[in-house]
């Protein structure tokens, strides 16, 4: 059974209003593990993939085949100067492994990089299965691997395509390998389509990327997850981020006082967290007030809570501060900026954290460490900075 829990850094606010930091923790519950997986491998086979990278992509595909159940579906799209559907999505129980491996072994490298057409073809291939979100709870994944830049499209084009793919109920897990791929494109795909983005340091990491993604899909307990925000009159919400499982900024569209925050599919043992800023307006009457009603929906299940505060003129109460909630938000902002390579912006946030919370606070020390690593390192350090390994907050 899915559940959510909210918290705020300031449980009490003055009559003239204040800005609060809030967290929404999402617990996925457990499931039967019987959902179909619709997996589409979208592989860069441009000339730069020749050699070890393509060899390891073949090994990764073989590893995926070994993880599939009979009712799962798998397909392959390869892209270089053009996209080709190498294997249309088909039920694994009806597929001869030898035939699937023969198709993989026939992959060869050459030509340019039309990643856009590759992704569009991957979406169309999965859509051919006739998925409908209102009746189908299949876990749908595009696993994209590339080592280069698209020859004709920029990240903004991919943002629009990824949004369309996400609207089809497909999550994109994107991986860039090496030093020449377009980081912003890879990041945009994973973030916009509610998946993840990953940097692969060497060809040997490809097999793990594919295998981990397929195994994670097996643990999904609910798809099409989102948080519905219903703000009270005068309340403003800003700076919305997904903090877990990967730090990502969320573009929230409001309709009146209501908005939806899209979430990745919910998986067992993988808590999610959303952090946001809430401005509590001026109120003449003191007392407890609900600022934002929050409802989680996922695969037909619902769970509700609210972001609330009490208006008071008690100075002792107004001094109360839940430091961990403030740190959660600032830490997420730092990690998001580091993922983009924006070290200067991250350093500004770290300075704020240090000034407010002290340089000996564990989260501040970790933010300082991650910022140094990204400043001195490269793509691997940027991607690693977006993930919180140790969820303990304050010592």
From TrEMBL:
Gene3D superfamilies: von Willebrand factor, type A domain. Residues 374-395 are annotated as: Disordered. It comes from the Archaea. Residues 38-217 form the VWFA domain. InterPro entries: CLCR, VWF_A, vWFA_dom_sf. Pfam families: VWA. PROSITE patterns: VWFA (PS50234). SUPFAM superfamilies: vWA-like. This is VWA domain-containing protein.
